[in-house]
Each structure stands twice: as structure tokens, then as C-alpha cells.
Amino acid sequence: MSAMLTVFANRRMAIVLFLGFASGLPLFLTGGTMQAWLTEAGIDLPTIGRFSLIGLPYTLKFLWSPFLDSYAPPWLGRRRGWALLTQVGLGGSLAMMAFLNPAHSLAWFAVAALLVAFFSASQDIVLDAYRTEILRPDELGAGAGVYILGYRLAMLMSGAVALGMARKPDRAVGRQFG
């Protein structure tokens, strides 16, 4: 039994847990949390329903995954270079989304949310490939489980924190600058 558990006690698994967490963090923000934010901003229900289309990049990421796999940025190699680019894009689009008030600039809010979904889906592609490269063949199954654990923990955390902030108007960044 202890021999099976030793696969979890290495640096690569800690990296995989962190990568799963980084990959899962933005997903819930463009799903349930965004819908709650839009509801509290007074957006009508049909418009909120149309915002569910923002999740399409997660479904269609197979279209640009061959591009990410074929071309490498000129720094850090193929996987880490794309990971850095997706992280920068995610950070910028999340900041844009945070500083917008959907009640006043719904179109720009939609663009920011779509960019978050696109960069997040792209990050999923890159981090999944990187995970496959850094783990040994006998660690792939356990690594997939650890990655999903990080992914789910991040989804729970991002949903709880974002909904908590949305309920406190004095702390919600978007309401200060909208």
C-alpha cells in the first residue's frame, strides 16, 4: 500500500496540483459567478442566458490546440512559453472584467469575459500537455487525479470568494469604477 502512495510524494505531483489549481480558477468566474454578478447588476434574464455562450471556448478549444502544439514562442519552450502567454492574457482580461460594471458597459464586459474564457481554455490545453510531459508513465493516472483535485479546489474557491465579494458592494471593484 505504501508503495502506491509514494507516487504522490514527489515534486512533480506538487507542480501538477498547482497547475490544476491555476487551470480551474477562472472557469467558475465565467459561469455561475458571472451569472450572479449580472443578476445583481440588474441585467435581464434573456441577456444573462446569452452570456452562457461565453463558455464556448472550452468546448471549441480543439480548434486551436493544434496551433498551440505546433508553434513555440521564442522563449521558455513550447509548453512554458504558451503557459506564460495564457497567464498574461488571463491576468489582463480578468483585470478588465474586474474594473467593468456590467450595468454600464455590458458589451465590454462580454468581451472581457470571452477573453477570460479563451485564455483559460488555451491554458487548459497547454497545462494538460505540460502535465503529460513532466510525469513519468507510471505517474500519469495519479497525476490526472491530482490535477483534477487542484482544478476542483480552485473552482470552489473562486466561486466562494467571488460570490462573497459580489454580495458586498463596498468591496466589489467593478461597482466602484463602473
Outline the fold blueprint.
Layout lengths: L1 H4 L5 H19 L2 H9 L4 H6 L5 H5 L4 H6 L6 H22 L7 H29 L5 H27 L6 H5 L1
Helix pairs in contact: 2-8, 2-9, 3-9, 7-8
Question: What do you see in this structure?
Answer:
The chain is mostly helical. The chain has one domain (10-177): Growth Hormone, Chain: A. It is 74% helix and 0% strand. The protein is built from 10 helices and no strands. It is globular and about 55 Å long. Mean pLDDT is 84; it is low at 171-178.
Brief write-up:
This protein is mainly alpha-helical and 178 residues long. The protein has ten helices and no strands.
Number of domains: 1
The total count of helices amounts to: 10
Largest sheet: none
Unreliable spans: 171-178
The CATH class is identified as Mainly Alpha
What's the number of extended β-strand segments? 0
- If you average the pLDDT, what whole number results? 84
Taken as a percent bin, the fraction of beta residues is: under 5%
Structural class from helices and strands? mainly alpha
